[in-house]
Amino acid sequence: MANSKRQLFIKRRLRVRNKLRKVNNGQPRLSVHRSSKNISAQLIDDANGVTLASASSLEKDLGVVGKNNVEAAAKVGAAIAERAKKAGVTEAQFDRGGFLFHGKIKALADAAREGGLKV
C-alpha cells in the first residue's frame, strides 16, 4: 500500500530532526512551520527547552497579515534574524521540518542569512 502525503511528510520531518540532533553541537534550532495561510519561525534552545525568539506572518507589525507568499516569508526571515541578534544568537541549525527546501521555506532561510544569522 502506498504512503499517504501525510505519512511521507512525517517521515521527512523525523529524518531531518534526527540528522539535526547528530550535528547540533549545542546550537539553537531555527524551526519553520508553514500552513496554508501563514508561515512562522522559532529559534529553539533544545538543551534548555526554551524558545529564544520567534516571528510569524500573523504579526501586524510585519505588515504581511493574510499573505502567504514568498515576500511574506522573506519578511519573517528578516524579522527572526533581527530578533536572534537581540537574543545574542549568531548561528543556528535550520530545521525545515517535513517541508521541501524551495519556495517560501528557501525565501525565509535566505532572508535570515542576509539578516546576519548563520543558518
Automatic annotation (TrEMBL):
Sample GO molecular function, one term: 5S rRNA binding
Any Pfam family matching the protein: Ribosomal_L18p
Alphabetic keyword roster: Ribonucleoprotein, Ribosomal protein, RNA-binding, rRNA-binding
Function: This is one of the proteins that bind and probably mediate the attachment of the 5S RNA into the large ribosomal subunit, where it forms part of the central protuberance.
SUPFAM superfamilies: Translational machinery components
Subunit composition and interactions: Part of the 50S ribosomal subunit; part of the 5S rRNA/L5/L18/L25 subcomplex. Contacts the 5S and 23S rRNAs.
Similarity comment text for this entry: Belongs to the universal ribosomal protein uL18 family.
Protein name: Large ribosomal subunit protein uL18
Species of provenance: Pseudooctadecabacter jejudonensis
Upper lineage: Bacteria, Pseudomonadati, Pseudomonadota, Alphaproteobacteria, Rhodobacterales
A GO-annotated cellular component: cytosolic large ribosomal subunit
BP GO annotations: translation
Coiled coil: none
InterPro entries attached to this UniProt entry: Ribosomal_L18 (IPR057268), Ribosomal_uL18_bac-type (IPR004389), Ribosomal_uL18_bac/plant/anim (IPR005484)
PANTHER family per the UniProt record, alphabetical: 39S RIBOSOMAL PROTEIN L18, MITOCHONDRIAL (PTHR12899), LARGE RIBOSOMAL SUBUNIT PROTEIN UL18M (PTHR12899:SF3)
